[in-house]
Amino acid sequence: MVVLKAIEFAKHLVGATLGPGGSAVDATAGNGNDTLLLARIVGREGRVYAFDIQREALNITRSKLVNENLADHVLLINDGHENMDKHVSGRLDAVMFNLGYLPGGNHNLVTRPASTLKAVDISLRLINRGGIITIVSYSGHPGGMEEREQLAGMLENLDQKQYQVLHYSIINQKNHPPRLFAIQKL
Ligand code: SAM
Predict the structure, then answer these.
(1) Is the pTM value of this prediction over 0.90?
(2) Residue 44 near residue 69, CB atoms below 8 Å
(3) Which of 14, 66, 81, 136 would give a disulfide with 51, using CB separation of 3.0 to 4.6 Å?
(4) 3 state SS of 122
(5) Which of the listed residues 53, 77, 134 should we mutate to test ligand 1's pocket, taking the one with most ligand atoms within 8 A of CB?
(6) 31: CA distance to ligand 1 center in Å?
(7) What is the pLDDT of residues 66-110, one digit of tens each?
(8) What is the Å distance from ligand 1's center to 161 Cα?
(9) Ligand 1: which residues within 6 Å by Cβ?
(10) Does pLDDT of 51 surpass 90?
């Protein structure tokens, strides 16, 4: 398939941008899949910061990293991504957000518009020129659509001389398919 799902397209964009030795953030570690991808790409010379408010998510993420011998260059941070700038040193080449709740976990512990927008704003400041921020957004849970709308409102007003913003969705799918926002700093 060349028409990728939102999550796969986010991975594709990150894979085309980030390289060995790079610096990246997984803003929502969850089950660790994006953290694993970032850790594989940047390798031992690079650095990955993975955030989650749930220790359970970080434990799952750690075991996946350990299995692939990739834990050494990943910092697992049990704090909200809205505090990203307190933990990250230097600039970033990629930031991945996968919003919503932890699959198989507590559905009340979801990302929220105010903290999501704050974290995206910090990411815009920390990202290098040419770097990419991907945000996969879901609308099927309470608050999800509101979060997406606020995010879209913020992103469509970014200065076009500084950022290029993509909004990707598969429009003939029922059941609230996820959407992708991707921002590249020019
Ligand atoms: N990227 C993950 C993966 O590959 O499995 C899935 C992420 S899951 C959809 C969303 C995660 O965001 C949950 O684990 C949740 O605990 C976390 N989360 C919610 N609010 C957060 C916040 N303010 N800062 C960081 N993580 C948060």
Answers:
(1) yes
(2) no
(3) 81
(4) helix
(5) 53
(6) 8
(7) 999 999 999 999 999 999 999 999 999 999 999 999 988 888 899
(8) 31
(9) 28, 30-34, 51-54, 57, 80-82, 98, 100-102, 109-111, 115
(10) yes
